[in-house]
Amino acid sequence: MKKLLKIFVGILAVLVLFIIGGVLYLTQGLPNVGDAPDLTVAATPEAIARGEYLANHVTVCIDCHSTRDFRYYSGPITPGTEGKGGEEMTESIGTLRVPNITPAAIGNWSDGEIARAITAGVDKNGEPLFPMMPYPIYSELGEEDVHAIVAYLRTLPPIQNEVARTQLSFPMNLIVRTIPKPYTPKTRPPASDTLAYGKYLNTVSGCHFCHTPVDDKGQALAGMDFAGGQEFKFPDGKVVRTANITPEMDTGIGAWDRAYFVGRFKEYADSAAAHIPVPQGGDNTVMPWTMYAGMTEEDLSAIYSYLRTVKPVVNQIERYPAPEANGK
Question: Of 82, 78, 60, 61, which Cα lies nearest the Cα of 70?
């Protein structure tokens, strides 16, 4: 009996040491993305203009890091809040907060630290960012586009708005440390290579990220690329699901021609269309139409060309499920 007890205590001690070692590795060894690059971005007018275009109309960084006014369709940005952050979401995994990215908050960051945050997902101190900030897709950005975004962020009017860090519950506070990965510099495909460039834009603008359904662990469902169904919750509890944008004829966008696809975005380009009031209790969307409307027709056309090549998936989406149906 004493021998069995000694064996049990020995096994328990090994397990405890294993757990302690694992926690120490996660908290001290990860994330391991390397030092911020020694980088000085050339803030040329061309680079700033490219960064402004990307951050406002393609990667839509400014969309998430500003205040959106959901009294209007698609939640256009409230003027004067560009980059100030501050949105807070309470979820089962903790309290998620959107950081301030104006020079008032990141003015003491180096260009390399900002670039590393965008592409590898860690802050100035090397601590992990929650992937609500979609750095796994921004890791696909071409190096010159990363530099352009950095140059543009430096030009934002500084807004004093101190935002507390995201607070994650166990075990997500440890899991999140495993997600950041080092950035491998890439080259943006030339616009003349329509399909490659269209795929690039689809990736970095979040089309696949938002329009592919995920499981309860946030992993994309196999065979369901672009098939829609991801759920986004509004503060009032209402839910909207993303659309099926595969070229399937009946439940996707297979019946859309190029002109209709481009026009669907461009209809929100003028000021009036960007401020369509939503009646109280009416349906809205988190899709930032008013920001994507600023994309060039050439870029929207390239996105369309690529989407025509993806696998059609039959997936009928109920865009606005009734509260009793979504269980939320």
Answer: 78
DSSP character for 285? -
Place of tokens 């205590």: 9
Residues 6+ apart with CB under 8 A from 88: 95, 96, 97, 98
Distance between CA atoms of residues 141 and 156, nearest Å:
21
Q: pTM for this one?
A: 0.91
155 vs 207: CA distance, rounded Å: 27
What is the four-CA torsion angle of 102, 105, 108, 114, rounded to 10 degrees? Answer: -60
Q: How many CB atoms lie within 10 A of CB 289?
A: 20
Q: Which secondary structure element, helix H or strand E, spans residue 65, and what is its range? A: none
- What whole-number distance in Å separates Cα of residue 141 and Cα of residue 119? 8
Structure-block tokens of residue 18 = 């294993």
**Residue 95 CB partners (closer than 8 Å, separation 6+):** 88, 89, 166, 167
The radius of gyration computed from the CA coordinates of the chain, to the nearest angstrom, equals 22
For residue range 239-273, what is the model confidence (pLDDT) as tens digits? Answer: 999 999 999 999 999 999 999 999 999 999 988 88
- What is the per-residue pLDDT across 124-160, written as a single tens digit (0 to 9) for each? 999 999 999 999 999 999 999 999 999 999 999 999 9
Both tokens assigned to 172: 């997500």
How many other β-carbons are positioned within 10 Å of the β-carbon of residue 192?
7
What one-character DSSP code corresponds to residue 222?
A: T
Q: How many CA atoms lie within 13 A of 200 on its CB side?
A: 20
When pLDDT is averaged across residues 207-211 and rounded to a whole number, the result is: 96
Across the chain, mean pLDDT equals 91
What pLDDT digit, counting tens, does each position of 268-320 carry? 998 888 899 999 889 999 999 999 999 999 999 999 999 999 999 999 999 99
Which run of H or E residues covers position 88?
A: strand 88-91
Task: Tell me how far apart the 2 most distant CA atoms of the chain are, in Å.
Answer: 82
Q: What mean pLDDT do residues 90-96 have?
A: 90
| Cα gap 325→328, rounded to integer Å | 8
Angstrom distances, CA of residue 54 to CA of 43, 105, 243, 293, 317: 15, 21, 23, 12, 29
